[in-house]
Amino acid sequence: MNVDFAATITFTIYLIAMLAIGVWAYRATDNVSDYILGGRQMGPAVTALSVGASDMSGWLLLGLPGAVYLNGLSESWLGIGLILGALLNWLCVAKRLRIYTELTDNALTIPDFFEKRFNDPSGLLKVVSATTILLFFTFYASSGMVGGALLFEKVFGLDYLQALIIGSIIIVSYTFIGGFLAVSWTDFFQGCLMLLALLFVPVFIFESQQVSSHPQLPEKMWHLWHSDLSVIGLFSLLAWGLGYFGQPHILSRFMAIRSPKDVPVSRNIAMAWMVLSLVGALATGLAGAAYFSKAPLENAETVFIQLAQTAFNPWIAGIIIAAILSAIMSTIDSQLLVCSSVLTEDVYKKWLRPQATDKELMLVGRLGVIVIALTAIIIALDPQSNVLGLVSYAWAGFGAAFGPVILLSLYWSNYSRDGALITIIVGALTVVIWKPLEGGLFDLYEILPGFIFATIAGIMVSKLSPKLSNKEQFKVFQSKL
Predict the structure, then answer these.
(1) Is 42 helix (H, G, I), strand (E, B) or coil?
(2) pTM recorded for the entire structure
(3) Which of 50, 112, 125, 261 has its CA at 20 to 30 Å from residue 193's CA atom?
């Protein structure tokens, strides 16, 4: 049987299931809080896997296995940095953010939380933070759409434009219909599928002795450290973990969990999923390096796809390919929803229609999904477009601009509105300026200097300009911990 046919059938069944979840979520969505945060009623398991799936996306199934395929286990440091960062995010941010955002008049978005946390009457903080989110996420979503289109193109033999349009329509459909509930529940099932694929593929390859007739892997492939990995390179890989503190699509999951008491259970599930998934991705890269040692791949990032198509029967291959495609979708839908939420709460309701009804806001939110998606599609029309290079800034940009603000907002009563503003600006600018200055110290991943400079700037400005620090509200928040 043809792999393309089996992949088409299995993926079609999967997509129908995702759209069915969207229809169910539509019926369960009654107001704007439901659409943006699921009414803050997400259970711990759904929250945990939604965090993981929306975070890792295609990078986990394509990028990391490809890097290990080329360089071996020295790529593990990036995974170690991510695990440490994710764990600290759950420990230091999740519960506090869930409590504080509800205390601040049920803030539904990160910019809304910032404005209410600092009691900013000018709306300037909301504008700056909302603009940052829309800018980074539009390019981020565009990159994901390009990746999804390329996979559709490769697996199903479609023209690039056809693949881009079909993939975009599918993602937009269930996000448009069901909002946060649809995105979270689809992410839950996508997370399960991703984990099963990541564990099954390398175990099958090694246990079935399909690599026994191939040459042994070079010794360096098994080492966590090699001569090409510098100290700056090591710190750069570990610094990826700092990004978690400022990712809006992850923070929104913390805000939506049913109760602060559910956070420990959700954290344990999320971290178990993350560790197992990363181990599976590393093992997949090694399995691919062994399996294809006699005929190296032209594109290392296709190692998961190539293993699926050559080592498994067509139906199993179809399920594995569905896992890869769903991984990409799970991140784009989260990005679209965050952008839609920002447009609804932080632009339309704030500046255009403060008296808008929930029904009107939900309509605006759904239209916002389409607007952002169309913008991302236009950017993605050329898969070689150099604007996609800006996507490399997104993780660092969010981490450096928002990470320090989130932490200082949750832990320091004297943190002021002006301090928060300068933190966002310094963090974002450092990332943008640092990246082009390659060589020596500037080879350091830009999130680390951005995070440090932004934190220092925020603290200094807050001490010099303590206005709008909202200490009384902070005392109430601490009493609820």
Answers:
(1) strand
(2) 0.89
(3) 261
